[in-house]
């Protein structure tokens, strides 16, 4: 509203602005009072306060009611726009319609979560919400909370262990490890003994980069044993290509190798703890209708497929 100062703005409240809007429409105190469900004296008091705030009479007596001053005419349109914008801001959020939505969602995920959570949901997501876009961004666990707080990501897919404690979470499934090698691997025709397992050449996914030790090695160490880890890689996708083309073996999350015909999968002779795969999001988007729909959609697709971030194993 042109010309109003910060000090004067502090003296205004919503009732005064609503009264002014109706007065500028009716040009009559009595009719304005009826529309506002106020008494006529209350509207007159409001008008007096408004005149003081704006330093202008705003409405003057005329032959057919009251006529606006030039200042009042200047206020009419911006005041109407401001009240309409405020009304939209405080009105209840409209239901989310995925078929009409144009959202761009950003999901932080490593390659394992891409394969076991995002990919199974993708076709259904495109069908249900064809106007939306999905960006998969690099998973950096130490940045999840800050990225979510800034709105840089909507959802993070990560194991429950080591994830930020102050974020909302929903566990999608529990994962376990199996031993995998190429189909036809001569030493995986049956479940190997513990000694045979330790003698195999292993490949490991190292999430911290270049490491040759994982939770399998921790489990073996409790029994005073070690295995031969000869290759460390950063991604599960490359690990699977290695397994398919060499005689290396690996402890793999079961969902990643299920129904892969080029691999032989057997139960390992060592008990390695599994983990929970979870979806994380920030409080800022917890109640957003579109965000809620996306979370429910992903969770439902995962549950339907019994189909998610693996650790070094």
TrEMBL record:
Q: InterPro entries in the record, alphabetically?
A: LysR-type_TF, LysR_HTH_N, LysR_subst-bd, WH-like_DNA-bd_sf, WH_DNA-bd_sf
UniProtKB keywords: DNA-binding, Transcription, Transcription regulation
Look up the coiled coil feature and give its residue ranges: none
User: What is the superkingdom listed in this entry's lineage?
Assistant: Bacteria
Q: Does the keyword DNA-binding apply?
A: yes
One of the record's GO molecular function terms = DNA-binding transcription factor activity
Q: Where is the HTH lysR-type domain?
A: 12-69
Report the sequence similarity comment from the record.
Answer: Belongs to the LysR transcriptional regulatory family.
Check the record and name the PANTHER family matching this protein: HTH-TYPE TRANSCRIPTIONAL REGULATOR LEUO-RELATED, TRANSCRIPTIONAL REGULATORY PROTEIN
What protein is this chain from?
LysR family transcriptional regulator
**Species of origin:** Caballeronia sordidicola
| Native organism taxonomy | Bacteria, Pseudomonadati, Pseudomonadota, Betaproteobacteria, Burkholderiales
């Amino acid at each position: 509203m042109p010309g109003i100062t910060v000090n004067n703005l502090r003296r205004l409240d919503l009732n005064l602005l609503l009264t002014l809007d109706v007065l500028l429409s009716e040009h009559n105190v009595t009719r304005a009072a009826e529309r506002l469900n106020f008494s006529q004296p209350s509207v007159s008091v409001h008008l007096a306060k408004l005149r003081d705030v704006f330093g202008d009479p705003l409405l003057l007596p005329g032959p057919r009611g009251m006529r606006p001053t030039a200042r009042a005419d200047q206020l009419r349109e911006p005041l109407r726009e401001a009240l309409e914008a405020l009304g939209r801001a405080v009105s209840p959020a409209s239901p989310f319609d995925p078929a009409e939505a144009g959202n761009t969602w950003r999901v932080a995920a490593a390659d394992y979560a891409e394969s076991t959570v995002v990919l199974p949901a993708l076709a259904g997501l495109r069908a249900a919400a064809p106007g939306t876009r999905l960006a998969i961004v690099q998973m950096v666990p130490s940045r999840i909370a800050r990225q979510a707080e800034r709105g840089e990501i909507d959802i993070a897919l990560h194991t429950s262990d080591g994830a930020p404690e102050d974020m909302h979470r929903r566990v999608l499934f529990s994962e376990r490890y199996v031993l995998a090698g190429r189909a036809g691997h001569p030493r995986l025709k049956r479940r190997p003994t513990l000694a045979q397992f330790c003698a195999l050449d292993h490949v490991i996914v190292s999430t911290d980069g270049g490491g040759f030790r994982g939770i399998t090695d921790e489990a073996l160490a409790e029994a005073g044993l070690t295995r031969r880890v000869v290759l460390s890689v950063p991604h599960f996708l490359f690990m699977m290509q290695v397994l398919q083309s060499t005689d290396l073996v690996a402890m793999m999350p079961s969902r990643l190798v299920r129904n892969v015909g080029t691999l032989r999968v057997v139960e390992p002779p060592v008990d390695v703890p599994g983990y929970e795969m979870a979806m994380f999001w920030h409080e800022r988007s917890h109640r957003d209708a579109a965000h809620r729909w996306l979370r429910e959609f992903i969770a439902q697709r995962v549950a339907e497929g019994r189909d998610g971030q693996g650790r070094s194993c």
